[in-house]
From TrEMBL:
It comes from Vitis rotundifolia. ATP binds at residue 42. SMART domains: S_TKc (SM00220). One of its GO terms (molecular function) is ATP binding. InterPro entries: Kinase-like_dom_sf, NAF/FISL_domain, NAF_dom, Prot_kinase_dom, Protein_kinase_ATP_BS, Ser/Thr_kinase_AS. It catalyses: L-threonyl-[protein] + ATP = O-phospho-L-threonyl-[protein] + ADP + H(+); L-seryl-[protein] + ATP = O-phospho-L-seryl-[protein] + ADP + H(+). This is non-specific serine/threonine protein kinase. Keywords: ATP-binding, Kinase, Nucleotide-binding, Serine/threonine-protein kinase, Transferase.
Length: 389
């Protein structure tokens, strides 16, 4: 007999499994009980948010998402709050991260990479036209829907144009190091639009090459490579792709290609179809302001319901005296987890790094034919294979 199911409900949403987790938020799968539509709910601990003075950042994230209504951007439906939590209801995107596609299948064909890049530029251009800059664009923040269309997510680090200083520039350094523009690394301010475009260029390089243009374990060396735009395109790229990447990854933001110029680029234009969509909704922030108010009238109802235990026919039979079918189903389930990484380093160097990492922990490493076959620790065995291509 299966144990009773505990169903959690927040407002009109039935909340299910955890699909993501970060320092300040958990993301749960949920379903709108009125429409049956699947959604993702980002759940934040209100006390933690206030303690770390993140209320304004949360308000900014929601304000940003409410300004954006585009087919290539993850949609925000609504924001709710209880006495202890904040709930941000988002579009549920089923196709996973673009990053996983690269990790699992490697570099893309140019026509496939171009289609994703065109959708990314469409989304970024739309955001910029509404004064919104993402500032943390990378493949991990690009999701794919059931039809293989790209959706930009995670506006937690975004900046509205109203936040610029008197010099018209943004001054907060943020983003993921490998994708950050050179001008973001210094403290002299930067234009959010041109900085985002640099990140798009790094993403295009990764899609076509299968690895990062700028990478180093030493941050200072990495920053020097980025500042000098020190990279080399792989030989399999077409001349048009190389030319466009070089124009995007221009370390001088004043001469870097702009989106209007990119729309006229021959490589980019191939097969390009601008999106046609209807904008709906407004940027009313009453609900997000209400989330941080202590008044009960602004709080959403949280319920936990216990459903009756379910029994199948076999379980009913097994309840009969002297008849036990349990042994028929005592099959041990095996699970396999796999994580893949790519590297341009030689096999010997990769194996050496693995040895350096695990030996201080008490592991024994056994090698054979450029593969690390087994790493043993007491009764546990971790098997790592490093194929050489």
């Amino acid at each position: 007999m299966n144990p009773p199911k505990v169903k959690r409900r927040v407002g009109k949403y039935e909340v299910g499994r955890t699909i993501g987790e970060g320092t300040f938020a958990k993301v749960k799968f949920a379903r709108n009980s009125e429409t049956g539509e699947p959604v993702a709910i980002k759940i934040l601990d209100k006390e933690k948010v206030l303690k770390h003075k993140m209320a304004e950042q949360i308000k900014r994230e929601v304000a940003t998402m409410k300004l954006i209504k585009h087919p290539n951007v993850v949609r925000l439906y609504e924001v709710m709050g209880s006495k202890t939590k904040i709930f941000i209801v988002l579009e549920f995107v089923t196709g996973g991260e673009l990053f996983d596609k690269i990790v699992n299948h490697g570099r893309m064909r140019e026509d496939e990479a171009r289609r994703y890049f065109q959708q990314l530029i469409n989304a970024v251009d739309y955001c910029h036209s509404r004064g919104v800059y993402h500032r943390d664009l990378k493949p991990e923040n690009l999701l794919l829907d059931a039809y293989g269309n790209l959706k930009v997510s995670d506006f937690g680090l975004s900046a509205l144009s109203q936040q610029v200083r008197d010099d018209g520039l943004l001054h907060t350094t943020c983003g993921t190091p490998n994708y950050v523009a050179p001008e973001v690394l210094n403290d002299r301010g930067y234009d959010g639009a041109t900085a985002d475009l640099w990140s798009c260029g790094v993403i295009l390089f990764v899609l076509l090459a299968g690895y990062l243009p700028f990478d180093d374990s030493n941050l200072m060396i990495l920053y020097k490579k980025i500042s000098a735009a020190e990279f080399t395109c792989p030989p399999w790229l077409s001349f048009g792709a190389m030319k466009l990447i070089t124009r995007i990854l221009d370390p001088n933001p004043m001469t870097r290609i702009t989106i209007p110029e990119m729309l006229e680029d021959e490589w980019f234009k191939k097969g390009y179809k601008p999106p046609v969509f209807e904008e709906k909704g407004d940027a009313n922030l009453d609900d997000v302001e209400a989330v941080f108010k202590d008044s009960e009238e602004h709080h959403v109802t949280e319920k936990t319901e216990e459903q009756p235990a379910a029994m199948n026919a076999f379980e009913l039979i097994s309840m009969s005296k002297g008849l036990n079918l349990g042994n028929l189903f005592d099959i041990e389930q095996g699970f396999k987890r796999e994580t893949r990484f790519t590297s341009k380093c030689p096999a010997n160097e990769i194996i050496h790094k693995i040895e350096e990492a695990v030996k201080p922990l008490g592991f024994d490493v056994h090698k054979k034919n450029y593969k690390v076959n087994k790493i043993n620790l007491s009764t546990y065995v971790i098997v790592i294979r490093v194929p050489v291509f």
